[in-house]
Amino acid sequence: MHYILYESEKDEVKMVQKKASASIHWLAIITIIFVMVSGFFIHRHRAYITEAMHLPFHDVNLQEVEDGLYSAKTYTSFLHLQLEVTVKDHVITDIKVIENAGYDGETARPIINKMIEENKIVVPAVKGAEIGSMVYISCVSTALSPQTKSENEGQNAED
């Protein structure tokens, strides 16, 4: 069956085709922008993971840590963290946050409670804030590390 289109109907078909073509064009542009933005965030997150993996993680035996107040700073491109760690009778009694600015800092903060409750530096990361948790662990291990002990000796509390 053949249809005979009048001139006005032909114009209407052309108009619909132009609108469909324009819609496809904009959809393609939006898709490209979405892919580019997603790629940027994925790349940035991977860079954060790589940087966190290269932080110093010291093997600290709390039985060898003397009573006192220890401090450390861990600065990354995504999080600036400064902590004061209090140790009494080989037990972490307090971890005070002095500076906490950046990605995952506040979200990872509950890891402090886990460290104090378990009296361990290396504890499971906070779900959804794994990268920030790694920075906290690094910072506490740096504060209590024998390598940084000499830097902290002037700050240790008296018995």
Poorly predicted regions are: 154-159
Number of H/I helices: 5
Count of β-strands: 3
Rg measurement, Å: 28 Å
Query: Helical amount among residues, as a percent range?
Result: 40-55%
Strand order of the largest sheet: 1-2-3
Terminus-to-terminus distance? 102 Å
- Helix/strand order, N-terminal first: HEEEHHHH
Content of β-strand: 15-25%
Derived structural class: alpha+beta
Q: What general outline do the C-alpha atoms trace?
A: rod-shaped
Give average pLDDT, whole number.
Answer: 87
The major sheet is characterized as:
3 strands, antiparallel
What does this structure look like?
- By secondary structure, this protein is α+β, with helices and mostly antiparallel strands.
- It contains five helices and three strands, in the order αβββαααα.
- It has a three-stranded antiparallel beta sheet with strand order 1-2-3.
- Strand 1 and strand 2 (79-88) form a beta hairpin.
What's the SSE blueprint?
Blueprint: H1 7-53, E1 68-75, E2 79-88, E3 91-102, H2 105-108, H3 111-118, H4 130-144, H5 146-152
Helix pairs in contact: 1-4
Describe the structure concisely.
With 159 residues, the protein is α+β, with helices and mostly antiparallel strands. Helix content is 51%, strand content 19%. The protein has a 3-stranded antiparallel sheet.
Key terms:
three-stranded antiparallel sheet, alpha+beta, 5 helices, rod-shaped, single chain, 51% helix, 159 residues, disordered C terminus
